[in-house]
C-alpha cells in the first residue's frame, strides 16, 4: 500500500495519503485547511547504515560548522540535519511544525 506525501499550496501543511493500490489515484485534501490544492513531494528513502557509522557521523565536528546556538533558524536546520543522519523521524509532524515555526521566527507576542 503506497503512501504519498503532499504539501498544501494554501497553508503549507505537509500530509500523507495512503492508497490501497499503486494504480489508484488518491483523493488529496489538506488535513489542516481542507484545500484540495497540493503538490506531491518526493518521498524519503532509507539507506542502511550501521549504528557505528551513524555515531561517527554525528561525532564529526564538521557537522557543527555554522551552528549558532543563539539563532533558532540555525538550531532548527542543525536538528533537521541530525534527524536525517539518524535515519529516523524525530517526532513526526509535530516536530516538523515546531521547526518550521522556529525557522519562520514564529514567536507569539505578549500583547
Give a description of the structure.
With 111 residues, the protein is of the alpha+beta class. The protein folds into 2 domains: 1-43, Rubrerythrin, domain 2, CATH 2.20.28; 47-111, no CATH class. The chain has helices at residues 51-59, 72-86, 92-103; strands spanning 3-8, 14-18, 38-40. Strands 2-1-3 form a 3-stranded antiparallel beta sheet, with no helix packed on it. Strand 1 and strand 2 form a beta hairpin. Helix 2 (72-86) packs antiparallel against helix 3. The model has no long low-confidence stretch (mean pLDDT 77).
Helical content stands at 25-40%
Q: Characterize the main sheet.
A: 3 strands, antiparallel
pLDDT averaged residue by residue:
77
List the uncertain runs.
Answer: none
Key terms:
3 helices, three-stranded antiparallel β-sheet, 32% helix, 3 strands, 111 residues, alpha+beta
Quick structural summary:
The protein is built from three helices and three strands; from the N terminus they run βββααα. The protein is of the alpha+beta class.
